[in-house]
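Model: You mentioned two targets. I'll fold them one after the other.
Researcher: Yes, keep them separate.
Model: Target one:
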Amino acid sequence: MVTIFRSGGLNFVIFVDDREPAHVHVMADGQAKINIVGQDGRPELVWAHGFTRADIRKAVRIVEERQKEILSRWRDIHG
């Protein structure tokens, strides 16, 4: 597990043994998995547990704002 950054009280991590599609895990009081590039090209929530709707919106917004950086980190980790 590689923590790629922290923002807004959330930890954004990529697991080294994960598979496509490229995604990031978000951890705090809950957990979420967000595909970095969804069907429409924007980040897409896969699942979330223990997060408020506000936290989910915040996490997706942060992934959208930093999408290129996160995708680059995914490629660095997974080749």
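Model: Target two:
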Amino acid sequence: MKALNIFIVEDDVFFGQTLKYHLSLNPEYNVHLFENGKDCLSNFHLKPDIICLDFGLPDIAGDVLLKKIKEINNKIPVIIISGQEDVEVAINFLKIGAHDYIVKNNHTKDLLWNAIIKLRDNMNLIHEVEELKEKLEEKFSFENTIIGQSEAIKSIYTKINKAINNTINVSITGETGTGKDVVAKAIHYNSDRKNKPFIAVNMAAIPKDLIESEFFGHEKGAFTGADSKKIGKFEQANGGTIFLDEIAELDYNLQSKLLRVIQEREVVSIGGKSPVKFNARLIIATHKDLVEEVKNKNFREDLYFRIIGLPIQIPPLRERENDILLLSKHFIEIFIKENKLKPISISSSAKSKLLKYPFPGNIRELKSVIDLACVMCDGKTINDDDITFSNLNSDNFYFTEEKSLKEYTHEIILHHLKKNNNDVVKTAQKLDIGKSTIYNLLNTLNSDSK
């Protein structure tokens, strides 16, 4: 932090010089001494950080000068130094904005020294918080979080921009690993709620019997093991955003309680009697098709319509054209920075290998692949043999079995049919084949099963 500018306004020259000398022992303090209020005000271009103000000045009364200082800059802490030990006078100064009140005596120098140290610590803390906020805003700016130039991603940008300018609920859908949580944070940290809490709740990670306590909180003694009062997630998110990830995993019987909370914007803790109002923006996410979940009676229709708000569908990585290469470059740069390495490039053969792979694990899998490639390469260039793909997902197209082209073709068609909910027209368009090819395959499979 920069050196601290301290103003001392004191008409007793000897006492003022004493305070200035004492404070100037700290090389991080720039101390300026003024004998009257007029000189203090005329030197505000020096941008004081702290003002030490004598109560009785010859030209301007201490309380009047304090008010003038506060009119110029209400954030500057002012320490009143006075020969009066009148408690009412001290209280009056504190009421009109003084930070502290110090009585003139043999201990004034030390008291002032300690008061300024505390102020400096608070200023450093505020400065650190502001820096963290700036870094947080930078971290969640669109260009740093949602990397890509594909039309699919441009559409996501448009919807995020629409979301940040209002309080409509947002529902984010997409396969696992596509970055649903990143989109949720981008909305929050680019909205006017960015300085308020962002509370994320993973529905799949909370046991059914603890959901209500996590959501709504509980009172001390509400049940066995409730040794103290707990504030629920909705109340914690007041003024900010609550992000309910994997919302489709919420138990059907608890969905009605969630619906009531969202409708009424209030919660009643377990064991509590009075409802507590909250004001939080709701963002939900799921990798499942909520419409299908409603049709299958796994998700309440009334809750669906309450939470759907602005829908944002995140495309899988394999449908994002050359975004794979942009993301790869981004992850390489992150790895280099975190591990303090020299620049690493990626060869044409490695790029080709990445583009041919379907990435069933999406962006999360790509980052894992790139991190490993950075470790395995020669430290200068990532080649194709440095790139290793996982074979955990049985639906990926990392072919290891010896099958005929016809067999593999059938597998590909069936995979896309399943993905497109057996929509033959959509599948034919995606694979650039005739509908008759798909119908013939289905007829053959039906005949073989008889």
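Researcher: Noted. Anything on target two?
Model: The mean pLDDT is 86.
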